[in-house]
Specification:
The structure holds two protein chains of two kinds. Chain A is mostly helical. Chain A is built from one helix and no strands. By secondary structure, chain B is an all-alpha fold. The N and C termini of chain B lie far apart (46 Å). Classes of the chains: A mainly alpha, B mainly alpha. The interface between A and B is medium-sized, with 28 and 36 residues.
Amino acid sequence: MMELGRHGGFILASYTVTLVILGGFVWHSVRRYMQAKRRFGERLGPDNG
Amino acid sequence: MSDVLYTLANPQRFSRWADRLLPWLAGATLLALLIGQYGAWFVAPPDYQQGETIRIKYVHVPTAWMALFAWVMMSISALGTLIFRHPLADVAQKAAAPIGAAFCAVCLITGSLWGKPMWGTWWVWDARLTSMLVLLLMYFGVMALWRAIDDQGLAARAVSIVTLVGAINIPIIKFSVEWWNTLHQPASVLRLDGPTIHSSMLWPLLVMGVGAGLLFATLMVLRMRTELMERRLRRLALNAVQDNR
């Protein structure tokens, strides 16, 4: 692993924030999609999505 | 192009198309982000002034591009809603707002985390930073407006007007570093006379830009598809209530 220097904490914090916000947003979007798809399947059958 | 728009104007056709496209879009996004990150960490050299802190730019800059692009996309959709009455335009607008807000928030926070070691401060009220903060607040405003109005058609028209008025902020953000004296540096990639950064730094940045664009597209299709299903479920629930009366 490369040496990040004295500002390594800021670099790691940036990537952590990016992963948390965008990763969390992707996770939330996929979960909502799966829930809607499941409810849709229950209501109309899996072929009517 | 108009044929594609006409074909996808049917929500059911769009849904079938979206289900087929989503795995490919997600795969392409992952591949582009992995290549971009490899370039950012193992190919691009440290900057002669910023040192390793330049690595932050490989997430900060692409998220800034996408934060602006999402509003442009919302503005085009707003025209689609108000003028052409395209049945998917308001669905696209509703889907794009939280995605744009997420990209904008990442851009502001990573910018602040870069600013502290490089400028010696987390934040300055210069034109670029302030106009980006205004963009984030506008995203929150649009998202709140969608929730505040029950009638989806009325909400779509209200959001469209707010979006088109708010579009004035996009050129302000882009040219703020040229129109005013700002601490934020001027553009180094999207310039008429070409990029001013070395190719070893440029290509990872551009690949990360492509990755961010693909992530935006994936999330758009995913959230539009979800919105269409939820709207149909709401309509069915409403019809069931009316039938039972």
